[in-house]
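Notes continue from the previous slide.

Worked example: a multi-chain complex. Inputs as given:
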Amino acid sequence: MTMQLHKVHGSGNTFYILETTDEKSMDWSQLSIWLCQKENLGGADGLLLVAPSKKGLAKMRVINADGSEASMCGNGLRCVARYICEKNNVSEALIETMKAVLKVQKEAPIYAEIPTYSVEIAPISFELTSLPMSYKNKYEIRNEMIAEFADDITFTAVSVPNPHLIGIVQPDKITNTLHQERLSSMLNGQNDFCPDGVNVSYVYPMDAQTIYVRTYERGVGFTNACGTAMTASALVSSIVGVAQEGTVTVFNPGGFVQCHVKNNKGCFDLKLVGNATFIAELELNYEKENEWLWQSVKNTDEQKAYESLIAYTENKIAAIF
Ligand SMILES: N[C@@H](CCC[C@H](N)C(=O)O)C(=O)O
């Protein structure tokens, strides 16, 4: 059996898109683990499965690099949005995800001519049980020091709906990754706080409308960017007052996006806007159980245009750190 795949990225967060009409036809965890290995065409951060939906134009499932399944993926959803909109010749659509049916839309480019899409990020909850997370019988953690985690970082826990722990940090915690790596490894191993693990982001506010975010993703490790994490970080930054409500530009090691944060009397509307870049079209042969072989790999020329955005990002970041 030959399968058609697309290698895509949103902010350098790289995925394979695979469409199937039969969600039970394969062990997707094993396929994702195989696809994401570095030595296999440079690897990826996950597999995005596109399947039929009764609630939207398609359903997206997110399989992390370690084979675990996530409830949502913001960067991935932008790429799936482009795939579905182009396939159906529409400029907006509803896409079913594990916990919500979300609106996606084609947008004007945020940089040069780079294909750009927006995605709704929802549902949002600050209740620790929604992550899940537990800490001293607390109901929420909003802008609090947690002695067990750090003595100079304030943390907020939020699900969008995948779980995020967001720390507002000083530049030294960005230039040196060691603290974030240790904390993230602890929270994504056997631990008393986050039984299912958590995506951990360190945020440095650059100005009132701009933040820098680096994320250690659950099931993956450090990534160039995590869309839900950037959106959750923009939300947290506006709540704690280090960024204004409205449009927040979020820089990260993989580029930049815009996150729209709207507060409706304590209920938040979140939208993530950024690139949806298609790197390659591929054909994969299924040989036998857990064995696959590449049949063909055809690169597109889209990555060249994205590299100019990276150069712009690197200049911005170099001026700060
Ligand atoms: N990179 C994604 C999030 C992918 C899932 C995450 N690793 C998790 O397990 O929650 C994004 O762009 O949001």
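Summary box: The chain has a mean pLDDT of 97. The pocket of LBFN2T5F is lined by residues 13, 62, 64, 70, 73-76, 162, 199, 217-220, 226-228 (CB under 6 Å).
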